[in-house]
Amino acid sequence: MAWTTSACFAYTVGQTLAKAVSWSTDSMKVALYASNTMTPDKTVTTQVLTEYNGTASQWVTANEVSGTGYTAGGTAITPLALTQNYNSQGNNTIAWVSSGSPQWTSATISAYGCLCYDTTVSSEGLCFNYFGGQQTVTGGTFTIAWNANGIALFSC
Known about the structure:
Layout (H helix, E strand, L loop, with lengths): L6 E2 L1 H8 L10 E6 L41 E2 L4 E6 L5 E6 L5 E16 L5 E20 L8 E4 L1
Antiparallel strand pairs: 1-7, 2-3, 2-6, 4-5, 5-8, 6-7
């Protein structure tokens, strides 16, 4: 199967409700993934299946981008915030947002998507974002421009 979607890990949402993860105050990173043969699974039930470079996880460095200008583990996501949006149609959402755009300069890399993970909590994966296909840069700057709705969006 191929990578085709973006989602939050259900396990991590549960950890958030248990106050083990703070989406706005913990330290977060984003790592890029070059493999389109992996199939991210939002329904995993244990932390070890969400972890960056965890032994039981598919989010290992072997699936991660390698190339000029990229260091395994990715880069920090800053600044972070949670925002609430309620509209007149009764839609209520919480968005995990960042006004920053992670970048890798002088890079020659290709990526299908990324893993956002919490370095405060054992490199626990928060969400994965699919880029809509392979994105490539040669001797330039690879930039993630987060969706206007946020890195992750929760409906309430």
